[in-house]
Design a protein that fits this description.
- This protein has 52 residues and is mainly alpha-helical.
- The protein has one domain.
- The protein is 75% helix and 0% strand.
- The chain contains one helix and no strands.
Length: 52
């Protein structure tokens, strides 16, 4: 019974980590698109539209 609970807990943790990593990939893609669009829509004088 203990081994079954351990396997189920491990599957739950790995499934949760996989879901979190999937979400992080989507966030990274969105940030990359916004960063590339920042180069396309740069203001006059070469100024950046963000302050970092």
């Amino acid at each position: 019974m203990g081994a079954l609970l351990l396997v189920l807990l491990l599957a739950l943790l790995l499934g949760g980590a996989g879901f979190a990593i999937h979400i992080l990939w989507w966030v990274a893609i969105i940030v990359l698109v916004v960063w590339v669009l920042g180069f396309a829509f740069r203001g006059s004088g070469g100024g950046r539209w963000y302050r970092w």
